[in-house]
Design goal:
about 250 residues, single chain, alpha/beta, 7-stranded parallel sheet, about 45% helix
Length: about 250
């Protein structure tokens, strides 16, 4: 039996990279998938690749009305919501230390990564409760678990996600909502390949992977575990999928 049979999942930022890989995997495991993506063309491409009736909803996760509308559309289309994957986010080459980074970059990272996740939980958790419970999967990062220099904007946002994951897990356990986060290291999406190129600190981090470089499908498989009933006793955890970087 497919591992997500009968479940409805909404994935933000699923037009490319980890989100796209997760949408395709979830659909192959029986989920009805709603792709909340700011780029309508990329969202439609992912929906086509995922199949199983997947839909794309143009969504800006930094705008409350947009994300609320996307979650409502998923519920109206599929009859409920059981899995929320707050995947949208990312860093840029403008990041740096707290001393040197542009203030605009700090607020960009906070708004997209942390506030976008906050809004997803704000509107998604009530929908999951109404559907009888389910799983929230946030995206933290290995930079929230270890010292990585020169990425303080991104680190601040991803550290906040790790913290809110734990507090929400406690707050909504009685409502049968599990809240966990994945903490990837550098994952070889097209965006990350560009970011690593020419960045000495990030290249050093990439070279520290004990099991080789991470592909989007590796993160998607962890998300599948957290979305499925196999992880029914797992909540409030930040799970590193990092090829051993945090211990090397």
């Amino acid at each position: 039996m497919p591992r997500l049979a009968g479940k409805v999942a909404l994935i933000t930022g699923a037009g490319t990279g980890i989100g796209r890989a997760t949408a395709i995997l979830f659909a192959s495991e029986g989920a009805k998938v709603a792709i909340a993506e700011i780029n309508p063309t990329a969202g439609e491409e992912t929906a086509h690749l995922a199949g199983n009736g997947a839909i794309a909803i143009p969504t800006d996760v930094t705008e409350p009305e947009s994300l609320e509308r996307a979650i409502r559309a998923a519920v109206d289309t599929f009859g409920g919501l059981h899995v929320l994957h707050n995947n949208a986010g990312g860093s840029t080459a403008a990041d740096g230390t707290a001393v040197e980074a542009p203030l605009d970059e700090f607020w960009r990272a906070i708004k997209l990564d942390l506030f976008g996740t906050f809004l997803g939980c704000r509107f998604g958790i009530p929908a999951i409760i109404r559907s009888g419970g389910g799983s929230v999967i946030n995206m933290s990062s290995n930079v929230a678990l270890m010292g990585v220099p020169g990425r303080d904007c991104y680190t601040a946002a991803k550290g906040g996600i790790a913290a809110i994951t734990r507090s929400l897990a406690v707050a909504y356990a009685a409502e049968r909502v599990r809240v966990n986060a994945i903490a990837p290291s550098a994952t070889m999406t097209a965006r990350v390949k560009t970011l690593v190129a020419g960045n000495t600190a990030l290249q050093k981090l990439a070279d520290a992977h004990l099991l080789g470089l991470i592909e989007p499908e590796d993160i998607a498989r962890c998300a599948l575990y957290l979305a499925s009933d196999e992880s029914r006793m797992v909540t409030g955890q930040v799970l590193p999928v990092d090829s051993g970087v945090t211990i090397s």
